[in-house]
Each structure stands twice: as structure tokens, then as C-alpha cells.
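Now for my pick.
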Amino acid sequence: MELHEFQAKGLLSRYALECPQGHVAATPEEAERAATSLGSSNLFVKAQIHAGSRFKAGGVRKVRSPAEAKAAARELLGQKLVTQQTGPGGQTVRSVLVEAGVEGGQELYLAMIVDGSSGALMVMGGDGGTDVEERTGNGLPSLKALLLGTSGEMHPGEIADFCKALGLSGAAAENCVGVIRNMHRAFIELDASLIEINPLLVTAGGGLVVADAKVMLDDNAMFRHPDLAALRDQSDVDAVELKAQQHQINFVQLTGDVGIVANGAGLGLATLDLVRAAGGVPANFMDIRTTAKSLDIAQGISLVLDNPRAKVLLINVYGGGMQPCDTIVEGLGIAVRRKGKSLPIVLRLTGNNEELARLRLISFNLQAVECGDMWQAATRAVAIAAGRG
């Protein structure tokens, strides 16, 4: 789950990371009041969207008065902002952050992620600014990295050396060590998957201020953080995908006509690849989580049945200990009965309770073409969708 900048800064402030004073606004009038309360002639009005490169796209405006803040907000709110990261469709600006400017010199990039190779937390740093992605992508000096370990251990000497390698000294270097320690604690306690600060401004006295921040939280850990789950911007989430998530299903609507039901992300992706290889186009991606019950699965399958483009239902199931075959077939039967309609069904199932699943098909009076392997099922489903079945 990605947070807006104002939300990210609100969380990081709890961990003693210094952020500029600011207020979020959803109307030009609110922006004017926010600027007035800040009492500064050095202000920024910043579009709140889930994408970077906002400055180059005109989504960050420097203003000097409440009246200018109001005018800038009026120009941004409700508009589509297109950046290098949004794609050509852009994202609609529904709120702005009105923030006091900070006088700083050096700009740093500092981020913390999980290293995919070692499983350890890793901090990365280097020169910051609006073009950091372009600079690293063009083969210019890469970011420095430091592994922090897999058991929460910290190595003060290594962190201090890392901060000095960023070109910091004196108070700034000492403060950088503190920033990394606090980022580490925030990362663990918030169940984050990314904390990125760019730029981290170095002030004249060696202080470090978070001028911009991105925080991404692990969706799979939200059951531990109901307060953080409430931060999700529902307007930025596809309604169909959100409904699926609420029923323990990962779902992405696609543009094809072969509806797919699979349990497991890897199996789901493999099914998409096989449909493509067979000359078809998937109507969706589906990953039924191991925590899904038959009623949850029925909700997910109903999303496929509701898709007017879908012409066939390809069900690819591996019954494991936590998600047996019959539970998924039961969900299928419930969905068909509730919707009062079905699609031609191509079925490949193997594993726990597969014979019971076949009996459940009969009890629901469902007709299905059962295939012995995944490739056979994919080619048959594509043929049916193309009218050759």
C-alpha cells in the first residue's frame, strides 16, 4: 500500500525524523487557510498523487503568499497530472500539501528496502534531487548500499562510515546515523516494504530535513495495523480489485476473453503465460489466497462472470493442504447459483480432495471440460473463446 507524501511524513515524524510544517488541503480555500497558518513567504503547494517526478510535471509550485497558494491549488485540484511514472493517462489530483519551505544546501537520497538476495534490510544513499532516477539509469555513479542484517541488528561503525561516504561530516554525519536508526525502527514497526527520502536536505547547522518522502506498507501485514489500513486512498484503488482483496483474492482486470481462476500467484501467472502462448488473451489475473473460504472464492469468481468480455472460464487448481480442490469448486458452484449464469468451464485440478471436487461438480450440476494438464487446459480454453471449441 503506497501512501501519499503527507501521510508518509506524518508517520516518519513519529520516529523523530524532521519534516517541514505543512497541512493537506482538498479545496483552494483550505490551501489558503493552510498557508496563512504557516505564516511564511517561502511556501510550496504540492500535488498529492502516487507518482514521482511531480516537480517536472508542474505538480509542485513555489508560492509566496496565501493568495498564491490558493491560486496554485485551484490550478492543480481536479486536474490530471501526467508524470514519467503515471503513464499517459495521468492521475487526478484530489488534494495538495501546503508546506513551509526549508533552506538547505546538500540534497541527499536515502532509502530503505528489503534486499531480495539476502533477505536483509538494506539502506541506499547518494546525491538526491529530482533527477536521481535519470542519473542512475544513465550509468552515472550508482547509489551506495549497506546491508543492515536479517535479525534487526545494527552496526554503528558501519553506519557511520556509510554516512561519511555520502559526503557528510561533523553534525550532519552524526545526524545521518540517527536518521538511519529511526528509519530502521520505522521500517520494522510499520511493516514497510519501502521508505524513500528524496531529497533529504542538509541545513547550515548540519540538521537533516525530510523534504519529500515515499512510504510503502506491506498489504499482507495490514491485519496488524488497522489504523494504517485506514490510510489507503480508496479513490486510487480499482473498485473490482478492492472488492476482491476484501475476500482474500488478488485480482487484476485485463482486456481479454479467457477468464482465469487459479490458487497461488505463481500458478496464476503461469496460467496467464500459457493462455498467451496458446494464442489467447486473459480476461483477468486471479490468485486465491490460502485464507479464502468458499464464500470468498464465490465472490472472486463472480467478478469474472460479471465481465462481459469473458467467454470461457479456465480453472487451474492445485489443491494443497490449506486450499483443497473441493473448496474452490464449491465456490464456483455458489457463484453460478447466485449469478444465475455461467460460462463454458475448462477445468484442470490436481491435489488434495480432487475426487471430492469432482463430486461437488456433479452436486452443483456443473458441466466442465476436464483436462489432464495445464497446457491442454489453456489451449482448449483459448479455442472455446475463439469459437472453435
Notes: DSSP finds 13 helices and 18 strands in the chain. The chain has three domains: 1-19+103-237, 21-101, 239-385.
